[in-house]
Amino acid sequence: MGQDKAIIKLKGAHLIDYPINVLRQLTNDVRIIGDPNKYAFLGLPVIADCGESKGPLTGIYTALKTSSTFSNLVLACDMPLMRLEFLQLLLKKAPLADVVAMRFDDGFLEPLCSIYSTTCLHTIEQNLQREEYKISELLERVRGSYVSEAEIVRLGLSREIFTNVNTHEEFARLSLRIHARL
Questions:
Q1: What burial letters (b/e) apply to 87-107, b meaning 16+ CB within 10 Å?
Q2: In this structure, what CATH number is given to the domain that contains residue 48?
Q3: What domain count does the chain have?
Q4: pLDDT per residue over 57-85, tens digit each?
């Protein structure tokens, strides 16, 4: 996008405020993985990446490496439509696997709204050493449990809750959808 999408404004709030608010409905232990200088204004603990950032896998590694809990919910900063009900469903499945993620009927996996256990650390370290930065490569090597589209439909949810923003055009479409709901 040519700018830090976490801090762009959507309906008067930073894009990152939306996932923070839904996470706060689950826990008081919300942390941000990123540059402490950029995100300190949010009033939450901000943890810099462990080593050079190689994308989202580095962020997941940092979250797990610095966590005091076994299971950790990882949620991207650019998912403003995420719903508490989905996160609760992930949490119910957390004891079943190393990773709990959404798997859509078309096979697409959503790795940036998932639960990762610290049992993934060794595999992530190996992937980083091999310069395998795709989260899909991690998911192939760990024990996964997946949420289906049928499960989210039963909760009254749709794929829309995973809407994220990677371009100015996607941001414009998201803004229009949100303003249309007012």
A1: bebbeebbeebbbbbbbeeee
A2: 3.90.550.10
A3: 1
A4: 999 999 999 999 999 999 999 999 999 99
